[in-house]
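Minutes, project check-in

Agenda point 3 was the complex the collaborators sent over. CS summarized: two entities, 759 residues total, and the question is how they sit relative to each other. Sequences were read into the notes so everyone works from the same version.
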Amino acid sequence: MKTYLPSRFLVDRDQSRCIQCQVCVNQCSFGVHSYDASDNLVKANEANCVGCHRCVVFCPTNAINIRKNTLSYRDNYNWRPEAIEDILKQAETGGVLLTGMGSDKEHKNYWDHLVLNASQVTNPSIDPLREPMELVTYLGKKPDMIEIDQKTGTLKTEMPPQIKLSLPVMFSAMSYGAVSLNVQQSLARAATESGTFWNTGEGGLHKSLYKYAKNTIVQVASGRFGVHSEYLNAGAVVEIKIGQGAKPGIGGHLPGEKVSLDVSKTRMIPQGTDALSPAPQHDIYSIEDLTQLIYALKEATNYTKPISVKIAAVHNSAAIASGMVRAGADIIVLDGIRGSTGAAPKVIRDNVGIPIEMALASVDSRLRQEGIRNQASLVISGGIRNSGDIAKAIALGADAVYIGTAALMALGCTCCQQCHTGKCAWGICTSDLALTKRINPEIGAQRLSNLLRGWSIEIKDILGGMGINAIESLRGNRLALRGMGLSDTELQILGVKMVGS
Amino acid sequence: MTTTVINKERSGAVVKIDATEMETKTLNTRLRELVAGGDDKIRIINVCGQRYIGTDLNKPVDIEIIGTPGNDLGSFMDGPQITVKGNAQDGCGNTMNSGNIIVHGHAGDVLGLAARGGTIFIRDGVGYRCGIHMKEYGEQKPTLVIGGPAQDFLGEYMAGGTLIVLGLDLKKGEGHKAKYIGTGMHAGIIYLRGTVDKYQLGKEVGAAELTEEDKLTLERYVHEYSDHFGTDAGKILDAQFIKLFPLYLRPYGTLYAP
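CS then shared the predicted structure for the full assembly.
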């Protein structure tokens, strides 16, 4: 019995340009390129190519092009190549198919069906180059009402702990072990420089990153890796991770190969052992239990920090979110079906959860209906691609967004979906020291800061175009949105009108 | 976060707190103030359901609790020794880093969840899901010693440390009742006094007789148990013990298609 998995890509090497310098051989971590000394030729084993373009970028003579393999099966709507090849792989191994990054399936992307408004004639648009524009966002519980001392003009109400963001964008949870230390350092530096926050994920906080603590969100997840009082007290926010959009309802297995000496120190587990994160947190089986952990963390940090709770967007998100707010969460995070991961079973990533746009709209509506929207900030994540998505998210009711994939792309990621292999040629999602040094944290931080700067200017342009000068005026303002190509039910859930109406 | 510590001469004086009708937050704030002020012996009386006692304390202070402390006693704790004259509830020693908890009674569910260090002695029995995901790292090694029986899911996903269940109130000829013991266990050791059937064990767990080294470890902890609770260590040790250990260091290594 022989099965054949065709290579995904073909490597075109222009021999008239190739100088046999072997840069591609050294750069490829998947073993595609090799030098044959007897022929004095660089050759390719295309079966290993993942289409990450590392060789293309680094080839000094532009000799390489990567193409899709055009090998055809007989056309069949149901039995497309992916379905056939997945079966072949499983028939050979009997294993669960793993993958990386967010779902690549054609789930409807509602951002692309929403358009934003602008001022014309009846109210003037604002030129952000000329007038101040406010993107500052505070996350944390807001009091039901505030009292101001009439004499001094100062706030009499005691405010619950808040964090201040210069723009409503943060870097989402990516743990040390899943991504490299240089990636985390890039994120931490960029967050500090740009006045926002990065998130440790559940792998603990490396000693060298404690200096960025005031811009750090520390996570507590089911594995409780590297969670101790110094860690909890270091962060600006403590985030309880219940789930993530790429793999709602299941835990994580960081394979022993990725648990290097340094990863083991930070996670506080022996080197080379699998880091198993159970599916549930075994002290949280109910909303009441969630209250208990939220307040345990508040006690452990002496009520000085907001406590965030992150869930994957699922069918009953609205009811769950209501429970989370009532449980005492100061920030709730929703991660949609397009949310990314370092490793997840493919079947879960592609089939479980709901699009973040719908989850956001229904959660925001529900919390407003119940009169508790002020009690927690709402942060969303899962496939935010650009400042347009961010503006639409804010208008739908989000206080801020988390970006993961977009941040990694700023560091070179081309979304080849091989994170789970630990071989990332761009040195991002790997703990192989030969690869991790490919990210220079100084340059990485600069590129991330550039991205945030670009997006800030664009968001200000969008606001100005609408004739408003503060992000606060767009927040939850669904009249700024119209829907295109959506059914009545979809429009109703999103709480937006059809274009033209 | 840094706390200002006023270095006080260790006077040995015991500070007493009456927790009658005291809110959790008030009690813990008071404890924080006392410990920051240098007090190292605290006795809390009339405790009734107050949660998180000892959570934010990171010094080796002695706390005696008279009554029934609430859930998450000593969660995330780093250093104190807590003695409870009464029963503990759920989540005792949750994600504890170091210190000791001694309970003169029983404890509820999820005892020592994800604990990374310290020791917990429970005189009587405990509830479900105890010792889940305990882990050890370097010098830090958590130890749970349970006098009575434990319920299902004991030591699930265990990644280090030592779990001892003495089952002292099991009747003669009666075996342990817990099921799914050590499911997904990939490090650490469980010692059970008395008998257990194979079907009660997780698929990733092996059973063996104790080696001489195991016996030394066990003797040490049983003696400590007896010192705390005034039982006869010799009598406890004069029984059949079984050692449960992880069969695989990477129990789910073959779960995935390469």
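Noted in discussion: Chain A has two domains: 9-95, 137-142+166-469.
Follow-up: revisit at the next meeting once the mutant set is ready.
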